[in-house]
Amino acid sequence: MAFWRSKKTNESGPENEGLDPATSEPAAEPATDKAAGGGIFSKITGGLQKTRRVLGTDIRDLFKSEGRLVDEDFLGELFARLIRTDMGTGPANKIREEVGRQYRGRVVHLDEVIQTITEEIRSQLRQDHGGLTKSDSPPTVILVVGVNGSGKTTSIGKLSHHLHANGHSLVLGAGDTFRAAAVEQLTIWAGRIGCEIVTGKSGADPASVAYQTVDKAIEVGADYAIIDTAGRLQTQSNLMQELEKIRKVIDKRLPGSPHEVLLVLDATAGQNAISQAKGFSAAAGCTGIVLAKLDGSAKGGVVLPIREQFQLPVKFVGLGEGMQDMAAFDPDSFADALLKG
């Protein structure tokens, strides 16, 4: 087993998403974000730009300058526009019902309805435990799962940068041993961040890599061990069984771990992300969601049915290509940014 530092690669393509194409390294944080003051709200506002453009324009089109009578026709049109963001019929219907409850039979203006929708979305997204679970005694072990192309490895890099920037030490585990590009990409992230990484030979047992990652984190006294896994479809039962094996092996080395199992979902997948969550939630015992590629999607509303159906907290959202383009999920900021910006 080798412990690697960063080395550069000239590979390109979707497997290197999140890397600067000129250097094959993680893209640097855009200066404009820092100049604008940064912060969770500004990041989420930028990430939801496409969703907000679709939803805001659609809702505004329902109104005239003199306002609009809230009747069944209006409520039906509002419902149709809401589901275009892939928020699903359940959450969209709750919003429709709340708007009807407050305004039915009245002539209302756009800003009144926007405020009511925002408050209802806040209510639906409210969650008790949004932050990462932390072990009483380090390391905290985080297993990261998801389908191929979901942005899983890039999300690990961003999460690692986030933790390292907040003063935490960590060890990464390149458990996607069947995809050389994933190991290379994670190795580059580790080198850029300044943390150790455990890798195995191509095709090595992922459970072995996971075990040795936890072992190394214990040895060096790291705060976190973050383990990548092979991308898989939720219908691939043999690979789902492999996830169960990884969990058992990790628990054998450090009883009670993994402390978090984060499912990375591609926001651009919209409602398809729901079926992914169903399969992984059962097989991997997921404890939270990372919603990746939010900046590239007009389907940011998908977070609502994820919360409704699974009651899994959304832990982080991916908002761009840079190392710092990940934010801890904040329901209030998300609801405001979805419609107001």
Automatic annotation (TrEMBL):
<feature type="compositionally biased region" description="Low complexity">
    <location>
        <begin position="21"/>
        <end position="30"/>
    </location>
</feature>
<dbReference type="InterPro" id="IPR003593">
    <property type="entry name" value="AAA+_ATPase"/>
</dbReference>
<keyword id="KW-0963">Cytoplasm</keyword>
<feature type="binding site">
    <location>
        <begin position="228"/>
        <end position="232"/>
    </location>
    <ligand>
        <name>GTP</name>
    </ligand>
</feature>
<dbReference type="GO" id="GO:0005886">
    <property type="term" value="C:plasma membrane"/>
</dbReference>
<keyword id="KW-0547">Nucleotide-binding</keyword>
<dbReference type="InterPro" id="IPR004390">
    <property type="entry name" value="SR_rcpt_FtsY"/>
</dbReference>
<dbReference type="GO" id="GO:0005525">
    <property type="term" value="F:GTP binding"/>
</dbReference>
<keyword id="KW-0378">Hydrolase</keyword>
<dbReference type="GO" id="GO:0005047">
    <property type="term" value="F:signal recognition particle binding"/>
</dbReference>
<dbReference type="GO" id="GO:0005737">
    <property type="term" value="C:cytoplasm"/>
</dbReference>
<dbReference type="InterPro" id="IPR027417">
    <property type="entry name" value="P-loop_NTPase"/>
</dbReference>
<feature type="domain" description="SRP54-type proteins GTP-binding">
    <location>
        <begin position="313"/>
        <end position="326"/>
    </location>
</feature>
<feature type="region of interest" description="Disordered">
    <location>
        <begin position="1"/>
        <end position="42"/>
    </location>
</feature>
<comment type="subunit">
    <text>Part of the signal recognition particle protein translocation system, which is composed of SRP and FtsY.</text>
</comment>
<keyword id="KW-0675">Receptor</keyword>
<dbReference type="InterPro" id="IPR042101">
    <property type="entry name" value="SRP54_N_sf"/>
</dbReference>
<comment type="similarity">
    <text>Belongs to the GTP-binding SRP family. FtsY subfamily.</text>
</comment>
<comment type="function">
    <text>Involved in targeting and insertion of nascent membrane proteins into the cytoplasmic membrane. Acts as a receptor for the complex formed by the signal recognition particle (SRP) and the ribosome-nascent chain (RNC).</text>
</comment>
<feature type="binding site">
    <location>
        <begin position="146"/>
        <end position="153"/>
    </location>
    <ligand>
        <name>GTP</name>
    </ligand>
</feature>
<dbReference type="Pfam" id="PF00448">
    <property type="entry name" value="SRP54"/>
</dbReference>
<dbReference type="GO" id="GO:0006614">
    <property type="term" value="P:SRP-dependent cotranslational protein targeting to membrane"/>
</dbReference>
<dbReference type="InterPro" id="IPR000897">
    <property type="entry name" value="SRP54_GTPase_dom"/>
</dbReference>
<dbReference type="InterPro" id="IPR013822">
    <property type="entry name" value="Signal_recog_particl_SRP54_hlx"/>
</dbReference>
<protein>
    <recommendedName>
        <fullName>Signal recognition particle receptor FtsY</fullName>
        <ecNumber>3.6.5.4</ecNumber>
    </recommendedName>
</protein>
<keyword id="KW-1003">Cell membrane</keyword>
<dbReference type="InterPro" id="IPR036225">
    <property type="entry name" value="SRP/SRP_N"/>
</dbReference>
<dbReference type="GO" id="GO:0003924">
    <property type="term" value="F:GTPase activity"/>
</dbReference>
<keyword id="KW-0472">Membrane</keyword>
<keyword id="KW-0342">GTP-binding</keyword>
